Amino acid sequence: MGAVSIALDAMGGDHGPSVVVPAALDALKAYPNLKLVLVGDKAEIQNELSKFNHTKTPRERLQIQEAKEMVEMDEPPAMALRKKRDSSMRVAIDLVKSGECGACVSAGNTGALMAIARFVLKTLPGIDRPAIVYSLPSLKGHVHVLDLGANVDCTAEHLFQFALMGSILATEVDNLPNPSVGLLNVGREAIKGSEPVKRAAELLTDMPDKINYIGFVEGDDIYKGTANVIVCDGFVGNVALKTSEGLIKMIVHMAKEEFKKHWYGKLAALAAAPVLKNLVKRLDPNRHNGASFLGLRGVVIKSHGNASIKAFSHAIQVAMIEAEKNIPDKIRLKIAERFGIVNHEV
Amino acid sequence: MGAVSIALDAMGGDHGPSVVVPAALDALKAYPNLKLVLVGDKAEIQNELSKFNHTKTPRERLQIQEAKEMVEMDEPPAMALRKKRDSSMRVAIDLVKSGECGACVSAGNTGALMAIARFVLKTLPGIDRPAIVYSLPSLKGHVHVLDLGANVDCTAEHLFQFALMGSILATEVDNLPNPSVGLLNVGREAIKGSEPVKRAAELLTDMPDKINYIGFVEGDDIYKGTANVIVCDGFVGNVALKTSEGLIKMIVHMAKEEFKKHWYGKLAALAAAPVLKNLVKRLDPNRHNGASFLGLRGVVIKSHGNASIKAFSHAIQVAMIEAEKNIPDKIRLKIAERFGIVNHEV
Q1: ipTM value of the model?
Q2: Which domains does chain B carry?
Q3: Of B194, B254, B274, Cβ closest to residue A282
Q4: Backbone φ, ψ for residue A107 (5° rounding)
C-alpha cells in the first residue's frame, strides 16, 4: 500500500501532547508508510518532541500544523462548533476534508468531535446519521458494536444503516467475506423488543443476500462472540459499554479484597499475579482503543480521553487501517448498490 | 412478626419439583414463621418429598395444592393466560389474590408470569405498569435496578413511577430512611439522553422531599454503588443485566485459559483457587436470586429458570421479606400521599 497521512489532534484528551506526541513517534517507527500531522500549539508540541532523541525517531514523516485554540473536555458541542474554528480538533478534521490527510484521530470531547466532523465532512449519501463503532473483546476474538452513544433515539432505518456499515467495516478490517450481524434485543423471539428493533429486523430480513443477518441477539451474546457485528441504538450501546467497564473495575477490586482477606492471600496473589495481570490486560479497554465514527465522508477516530501512549498508538493504527481500506468509499459503494444512489467518489 | 404463607409454583423453571421441593424444605427449616404451599402435580411433589427424611423436615407448615397444568418455558404469555387456568403458575398467583398467601414464587416463563400476575392481581392505583426489579452486587453492597425487561418502551411517567417504587423497596428491604435514586442515562449533563429520561428527571426534580433523587447516572455507576436504586426502561435494563452475565462468563473462561497457558499456571491456580472461588461466589447471579414484580396488588417473585436449590431458597426469602413488609401496601400509601388517590387497602 502507498503512504497514508493522518492528522492527530495533539491537544485533545486528558493528557494532550504528553501522550499524543510520544504515541505519534511510536506509530511512525512501527509503520514505515505512515505520515503524521500533529495539530495544535506549536510550542507545546515542539517542547514535547524535544524530549525524544532526534536521531532515533523518524521525524521526516512528521509535520506540525499550528492551531491556536482547543476544545475543552466539558465544552458544549454547539459552542465548540461555532466559536472555535481554529481549534486543534477542527483543523485536524479540516485536513481530512481537504484531502491532505486520509484520517484524523482525537482524544477530545466526543460530542464536539462528532458535531464538528458531521458539520465539516457531512454524512455519506443514504446515511442519515453517523454511528460510533467500537471493537469489544469476545470469546471468539472481538465484536464490532454500534452505535455506542452518538444517537440516543434511533429509527428502524437508522439501525438498518448501522448494520450495513458495521458489516462493511468487519468485511474490510477483519477480512471476513460474510460477517454475521445481530440486532441487540431483549429476547430472540420475533415478538420481543421495541418497535424500531422489530422493524429493523424486517428490513434486514428482506435483504439476505447483502448482509449476513443472523437475527436478534441478547446482551450476553456480545461477549459470547455470537456475531461479528452487533447493532443497537446509542443509548443501549453506551449503557452496555459503560456497565461492562464498571463491572470489570468491580471485579478487579473484589479480587484484590479477596486476596487480602485470607492468610494465604499474599502467597496466592504472588503466585497468581502474572496470570491475573495477563487477564486484566486482555480486558483492558485501552487495548482496543480507537472508536470509529462510521457514516461520514472521511475517517474520524475517537481515542479514549485518558488513553495511554500505547493506547493512543493503537487508535492511530485503527485510523491507518480504515484510511488505507477507504472505508467511507466502501460504504458509499455498498449503499449505491443497495439503493441505486448515483454519487461521486467521496 | 407473625406467620407468613407463600405459594410456590412447584412445576416452574428448568428443574421443577426437584429444585423447588428441597428449597422449600430448607426454607421451612430456616424460618420458623414461614408456611409454604407447593402448587402443582401432587404425585410428582409427593414423590420428591418422599426422598427426604420426614422427621427432620418441618412438614406441618407445608401444604400441597393440586394444579393439573403447567406453563411451558417457551409458551406465549397470551396462550398461558387464556388457556391454562389450572396451571401451577396461575393457581399460585390465585392464592395471593385470595389472600391465602402473602406472596408467590415461580421459576417459570417470565412473560407468562407477568401476564398472569397483571391479569389476576392488577396494578396498584396510580401505577400504569409493573416493573421487574433485581438486586445487583456493587462496590458498596448492592443496588436495586428496575425495570429489567417488563417494559421495552417507557414514558417519563413510567420511569417516575419506577423511581417511586424502587425508593420504597429500598427503604423497606434495606432499612434505609432515604435511599438515593439515580436515572440511568448516557451522560450526567442535563442536556444528554432520550426525551423520556430527560422528562423523568424533571418530574423527579420537582418532588425532592419525597424521593432522594441524585440525578443521572451512567452504566458504570451500577457497580460503583453510586445510588441505592437505579431506574431505566426494560430494554436498557435487560441489556445491562445480560451484558453483565456474559462478561462474567467470559472473564471466568479467560481466567481458566490464562491459568492453563503458563507452566506455573497449575500451581498458581491451586494457590489462588480458594480466593477465586470466593470471588466467583460473590459475582454469582444466583446469590441474589429473586426478582420482584413491583407495582402489583400482591407480591410476585421470579426466580431464575435454572436456579439451584440454594438460589430458589433465596427467592423464597425475598418473597418472605416483601410479604412481611407488605411492599404493595407501602407503595399504595406513598402513591396516595403523592397523588391524593383515595383507595382501599390492597
Answers
A1: 0.90
A2: 1-127+295-346 (3.40.718.10), 128-286 (3.40.718.10)
A3: B254
A4: -100, 15
